[in-house]
Amino acid sequence: MIICDCDTHDDDDDQAKPSRAKRHTVDPVPWAIIYYGMMTGECCITHCVAPGRFADQFALIEPDATDPERPTRETSTYLRRREVCMRVLKRAGGVCEYCGERGFEPHDSRTYLETHHVVPLCEGVPDQDSNVAALCPDGHRRAHHGQERSVIRAQLQAQFGR
Question: Which stretches of the chain are assigned E, i.e. beta strand?
Answer without folding.
Answer: 2-7, 20-26, 31-36, 43-47, 114-117, 132-135
